[in-house]
Amino acid sequence: MKKWKCDICMQIIESDEMPKICPVCKADSSHFSLAEESEGKVISKDEKYVIIGGSAAGLEAAKVIVNGNDKADVTIINKEEEYPYNRPGLSNYVAGKIDKNLLYMENEEFFKKNNIDFRLGISATGVDTNEKKVSLSNGESISYDKLLFANGSSPFVPFEADIDNETVFSLRTMKDSDGILEKINKSSTAIVIGGGILGIEALSALVKQGLKTTVIEYTPNIMGIQLDDTSSEMFRNVLENEGVTVLTGKQVTSVKEGIVSMKDEEDLSADLIIICAGVKSNIDIIKGSGIDTNRGIIIDDMCKTNVEDVFACGDIAEYKGRVTALWSNAVMTGKVAGSNMIGKSERIEKIIPSTVFNGFGVEIFSIADTKGGDDKEEMVVSKDTIYKKIVLKDGIIVGGILYNDVQKSKSLLIAVEDGLGKDIAKDILE
Ligand SMILES: Cc1cc2nc3c(=O)[nH]c(=O)nc-3n(C[C@H](O)[C@H](O)[C@H](O)COP(=O)(O)OP(=O)(O)OC[C@H]3O[C@@H](n4cnc5c(N)ncnc54)[C@H](O)[C@@H]3O)c2cc1C
How many angstroms does the Cα of residue 150 sit away from the middle of ligand 1? Predict the structure, then answer.
């Protein structure tokens, strides 16, 4: 079986043939290349590694640890009652486009074979970094030689809300998705709060399932990070033609008893309400441990925290003042943390944020700087339903949007990564 790496989300997929589409981020086959086999010496050191969180970041770190230390004693503590699954795939699952079983990345057998103690449905509740112990929700405490925080993030709700999982949901976990799917069958109307990429994916799923849906966004633009004013307006028209009510520049003030209240607007209600207003790192359990936090756990370029033998990676970690809540970042930092925990020396690579979206008959690839500005140059091609824009700074490509013609997405990715110039920009826009 060959190993293929997706250059958008960094996921490794095992398959004899090159995958046609990435199951995690939906990038097409042009974004796959054969993954380099990790090499290097295998150490034999009796060490106990505890990983809090068993998703993208925790799983990647565990794999690196067991592959690099044949005496590693690895325990993963995972709050969810699920083996690791493809979280970005939840939107497709809610849309009814994918079978649940295809979302799982590893199963019980994998953990048994690799001698990893994967504890399902147990939370870490606190950490004593002097005693090197983690307390657990089942009353036990577990000791470690090296500790990794890979406990991710949770939905951020910037207003008062009763998330009752009856009418009002957030979309983060498999459990949320199962609840939403069950509710969809009994619903005809829905509201999505948040018109960013997560909200739009949820919206796409609900419309696909036949619900009459409204999306409410605080800022003036839908998908305001991935799109500029022009492409966002084009996309808004597509949504409205699909029967979606699009409310932008509206501030939700509360969601109570199934009623969405907004500033200076009439209340709205629907059978199903999904809140997708952003995420926040799960730093609560770190309180009082002496580990430095800001928005996330502060790490250096080796994923080390300020406390000896304590590491962090993925959505929980803050590097150079930023929490990067992306799957690609979770996989990359998981690898770096795992390597450094077994005594290797790996450093964080720069992640260039990019998005692939496919829904409502629209394909979008967007990367890095999509807005431009006074000190930047923009090259734009716009024809009918197609819009392509490249942003350059000092003659170097620093970002762009491919809307409804994503054939050159790989070229644009390479151009931004390698800092290529105008000739390539012209070629991409052709
Ligand atoms: C619907 C959806 C679509 C997305 N689409 C994309 C996309 O297209 N592209 C992209 O790059 N990113 C996407 N993301 C974001 C991406 O999924 C995250 O960046 C990624 O999952 C982060 O991985 P992580 O391992 O750091 O944390 P998480 O995936 O958040 O996993 C952390 C795990 O730790 C567990 N945990 C939390 N607290 C504790 C505790 N105290 N004790 C034990 N366990 C604990 C949690 O239950 C969870 O299982 C999407 C997210 C969602 C929800």
Answer: 9
Q: What is the pLDDT of residues 67-112, one digit of tens each?
A: 999 999 999 999 999 999 999 999 999 999 999 999 999 999 999 9
Could you tell me the distance, in angstroms and rounded to a whole number, from the CA of residue 9 to the centre of ligand 1? 13
Domains and their CATH numbers in the chain:
38-154+280-341 (3.50.50.60), 160-277 (3.50.50.60), 357-429 (3.30.390.30)
SS3 242: coil
CB atoms within 10 A of CB 382: 13
The candidate with the shortest Cα–Cα distance to 361, out of 239, 223, 256, is: 239
Of ligand 1's listed atoms, the one at least distance from the Cα of 153 is: 30
Q: Is 152 in the pocket of ligand 1 (CB under 6 A)?
A: yes
Please give the structure tokens belonging to residue 43.
Answer: 């150490």
Residues 6+ apart with CB under 8 A from 115: 66, 73, 74
What tens digit of pLDDT does each residue of 171-229 get? 999 999 999 999 999 999 999 999 999 999 999 999 999 999 999 999 999 999 999 99
Q: Is 194 in the pocket of ligand 1 (CB under 6 A)?
A: no
Calpha distance 234→384 (Å, rounded) = 10
β-strands 189-193, 168-170: how paired?
unpaired
The whole-model pTM stands at 0.94
Residue pair 364/355 in contact by the 8 Å Cβ criterion: yes
